[in-house]
Amino acid sequence: xxxxxxxxxxxxxxxxxxxxxxxxxxxxxxxxxxxxxxxxxxxxxxxxxxxxxxxxxxxxxxxxxxxxxxxxxxxxxxxxxxxxxxxxxxxxxxxxxxxxxxxxxxxxxxxxxxxxxxxxxxxxxxxxxxxxxxxxxxxxxxxxxxxxxxxxxxxxxxxxxxxxxxxxxxxxxxxxxxxxxxxxxxxxxxxxxxxxxxxxxxxxxxxxxxxxxxxxxxxxxxxxxxxxxxxxxxxxxxxxxxxxxxxxxxxxxxxxxxxxxxxxxxxxxxxxxxxxxxxxxxxxxxxxxxxxxxxxxxxxxxxxxxxxxxxxxxxxxxxxxxxxxxxxxxxxxxxxxxxxxxxxxx
Length: 346
Known about the structure:
Blueprint: H1 11-25, E1 46-51, E2 64-69, H2 86-89, H3 99-104, H4 109-122, H5 126-139, H6 144-156, H7 160-173, H8 178-190, H9 194-207, H10 212-224, H11 228-241, H12 246-258, H13 262-275, H14 280-292, H15 296-309, H16 314-326, H17 330-345
Antiparallel strand pairs: 1-2
Helix pairs in contact: 4-5, 4-6, 5-6, 6-7, 7-8, 8-9, 8-10, 9-10, 10-11, 11-12, 12-13, 12-14, 13-14, 14-15, 14-16, 15-16, 16-17
């Protein structure tokens, strides 16, 4: 185990704290962080297909753009796109450690600083946590847990370059931890280093074939670079692991939609809606897919439902407005466009 080579403490202390060390080694991050993952509720990530304006006399089809976002509940602020499992970051394994007792029993300073950092992290005092983790690292640069925890804290602060540096240092110490590649991939994705992120997610998956968060993140990254076939493959793997994950059905449907396979897209959006009946984005997406098949009544019904569920979904007003415009209902279309503009400007 990581800690035993430095800690010179009575056997009774080691016995009392063994749960701490084992939990530390296996501590995971984000889902949110998966909805990421992140997210977090398994619906860490949303992908919507949005109809764009098109003059009726030029074409009867609605062009579609694709927008993705993955809110990470549990992390401060809005973190779009990728995700990590916040429950993995939280240092719950250390909440019962009595630092005064550890000091009295002669625990090494690096361990005291590490556990103090965990206390600050848990309280949301990230700068103080980083200070303590740094002391721990300086005292024992082979102690991987402080590097991981400081990387997680940089991630919370959105200091992605520093998070990547710490995760890379931890990987040098132990390259067998799948979660470290997922965390570093997440940080790289947030910096726009999508291909490097995919490499990291792939390494995480190679170490743990059923690592759902890494699969979710890679599927999103593949979608980002328009590799829809591989994104669909990853989504299919995720669905086998989490068949009730509505956001993954929606994501795969978005990839099928991008490949212009409206039938398969509709099937996936329908399953997402079956799992989560108030899934406004999936209703929105299916409405656009129905429109592409020429089933206007179904398209409008789905878009109406999306707006009823989420009256603040600006993109749904745009999609409905585009369809109404193509149908010649110009006043209604203009009202939808105006509402979408109002929502986006507020």
